[in-house]
Amino acid sequence: MAASKPVEAAMAAAAAPGSVNGVGGGSGTAGPGSGAGTLPRWHVALAIGAPLLLGAGAMYLWSRRRRRREAAGRGESSGLKRNSERKTPEGRASPALGSGHPDGSGDSLEMNSLDRAQAAKNKGNKYFKAGKYEQAIQCYTEAISLCPTEKNVDLSTFYQNRAAAFEQLQKWKEVAQDCTKAVELNPKYVKALFRRAKAHEKLDNKKECLEDVTAVCILEGFQNEQSMLLADKVLKLLGKENAKEKYKNREPLMPSPQFIKSYFSSFTDDIISQPMLKGEKSDEDKDKEGEALEVKENSGYLKAKQYMEEENYDKIISECSKEIEAQGKYMAEALLLRATFYLLIGSANAAKPDLDKVISLKDANVKLRANALIKRGTMCMQQQQPMLSTQDFNMAAEIDPQNSDVYHHRGQLKILLDLVEEAVADFDACIKLRPKFALAQAQKCFALYRQAYTANNSSQVQAAMKGFEEVIKKFPRCAEGYALYAQALTDQQQFGKADEMYDKCIDLEPDNATTYVHKGLLQLQWKQDLDKGLELISKAIEIDNKCDFAYETMGTIEVQRGNMEKAIDMFNKAINLAKSEMEMAHLYSLCDAAHAQTEVAKKYGLKPPTL
Fold first, then answer.
1. Cβ distance 578 to 565 under 8 Å?
2. For the segment 151-183, what is each residue's pLDDT rounded down to a tens digit?
3. DSSP line for 364-383
4. Cβ distance 111 to 119 under 8 Å?
5. Where are the alpha helices (DSSP H) in 345-457?
6. pLDDT, tens only, 370-381
7. What is the SS3 assignment for 174-202?
């Protein structure tokens, strides 16, 4: 099991930002039942990206269990309150003219200042309801001027009502100014905060909008859908904006050796990942008897292959470039290998021309062209271009129908597109061509399990669970089978057995950091053992300090604990490791949410519940 394998994204319960086919790293696998209402809120980190509001950020994660309980088992929105558009003015009940006078006959001159202010506000409300916003503004302005300065609550209401009228006239600057006055007088005034958030959105003040809507969400207990939708929207916009700039200027980073090996293990018909033949090895190599092997030729590509076997990955791109520049015998292979490593270091723009070139080489080995199509299709899916992705996979199947990798990776694409039946058909086609390919069999089981769980079909769920047992019995060395089974067992709340499955994964792949993260999350959900969970996730970082999933998960937990500074540090480390712009945008949304919560705590003393 590994975050770098295709299943880690393709089998996610929702198409969370992260890796597909391993190039993109990211958020790990989430089971289809991650949102089961009976699960404690620890589980939200495992199923990140799967709530009602995708990408809503870490500040909202604590509430997912409650929201999911309301939405579980029905294909509709959650039980979040659907507020009105908050367009109407408001205020406490106002005294009628002459109130406070026994005979009720006093005129406006006899009224005190607050009474006259309330009367002006009431008149403004009538104008507002009649759609006469300019007259309403005049009345609210009169109310503000009449209201005693010590009457903070009333005065804040008058400012908020005037802001509502300005909103109808789309005078966003005035809306923000009046709402600011209202909030200064009444810091926990939800309507004023939300109206100011909307004004900031219109004025393109995303950071300020996020802070205001964060405060609103906390004050409303994360129960108002309108507020949550705005938070989700602005977080996504901020995430994309920040990621676009960061990704453009990022330094390429080679992932860990375990990540790379796990990625290549998801291919069985990939020529460039096959071991070198004896005749290909260079004259520096010796066989076990110490005799020099035959030197086939001096080739940059063959040197790159040698470096692959030595796990000296940093030199591969440069050696492939030498082969390409010399237009050597292995130019097509060198183009594909260089493109693959460009993808691994997160340089999709550099990879695409190489992939395009390989695909266009009609005389090249068909398996090279099919492999290039698979990788370009994967890249398109990461860039949220599913139609282009589908076209590439279909073309690969057309030119090389006996290539099991085409069906294996297309099956994962179908999972992301929620075409589970088609995914299962592709996995079957892969298995027919490669009966001993354990990874495809495990992923087929998980696809069937997800389908059964989503349909709430208990008999099919049990059949899928039995299928997992058969896979791990048939392929006891397949760590992915144990890992996916563990996630299904967690959904079924069979925590002890899930823990055993993760232990088997660790026995098979002790250097796989992602397994430790999943096992740590299991401890949090199962035993609410925070110390053990954090210990295991820290172990993951110790094993692989390039495991972005571990940093992201640690950050999410720290948010839930209220440790914003540490959470932001973890998210920033994950951002620096992100291998795609989409994944980076997702991580920025988490980081921005934590930043906003920090500012809200400073300004208003507001904090959501913590662990």
1. no
2. 999 999 999 999 999 999 999 999 999 999 999
3. S-HHHHHHHHHHHHHHHHHT
4. yes
5. 348-360, 366-382, 386-399, 404-416, 420-433, 438-454
6. 999 999 999 999
7. HHHHHHHHHHHHCCCCHHHHHHHHHHHHH
